[in-house]
Amino acid sequence: MNFVPGDFLSVCVFWSVLGFVVFSITAGVYVAYLRVTASRPTARTFSGSTFAMCLIGMKVAAIMGESGYLESRPVPYAVLYFGLSMSVAVGFALSSVGRTFAFYLSSASLIAFQAFRLPLEWVLHQWAAQGTVPETMTWTGSNWDIVTGGLALVCAPLAWKLKGPAQQFVVCSFNLTGFILLLNVMRVAILSSPFPFGWGTVPPLQLAFHLPYAWIVPVCVGGALAGHIILFRRLLGR
Length: 238
Known about the structure:
Blueprint (H helix, E strand, L loop, with lengths): L7 H30 L2 H27 L2 H4 L1 H21 L1 H9 L2 H7 L3 H14 L15 H16 L2 H29 L24 H21 L1
Helix pairs in contact: 1-2, 1-5, 1-7, 4-10, 5-10, 6-8, 6-10, 7-8, 8-9, 9-10
């Protein structure tokens, strides 16, 4: 299958989104564990370990993408790649680190993290115009995740200023909306991929087979999923 790479500007923005997600996770670990332990060396150790794990995970994803197996046999290898990426995200969110995020970071910061989905949707829109991804992956098709990115910019300040039930309503409304839209993105991505049960889009979604595009699954989709689960833990815990 022929793959059309994105232009220089869109790829640079995509790299910026990847960097934002990894930096936010690393910085979040530092802030959360600084509040838990009141020890800067300990917080730096935890954040450094998290950053290293992120890089290792991205390296593993790169090896899988560059191996050629995903493209040669999307079923089952690409399906397993997606499932493994989401399993790691869920595992992180349900781990003790995810619990520390949930209870030692503010709701406003957890919401603001999801704002990376706004520039990411712009990137996907540019790629659709260039023939890199099918139009189904943009807001002109079946992907409306741009709403989540916009809501994050609106709801984060509200969650910071409001207290009590009003704050809970804003946080819960945002998280439910963003989570549902994320599930829709996953559905559209799977059906836009070159699977026998897919929509047969032209071009098919081939990001998982090429770098740096392959990192959109474990970093961006996985990061968004982990963020929603962590925020749900905060809401349920409170």
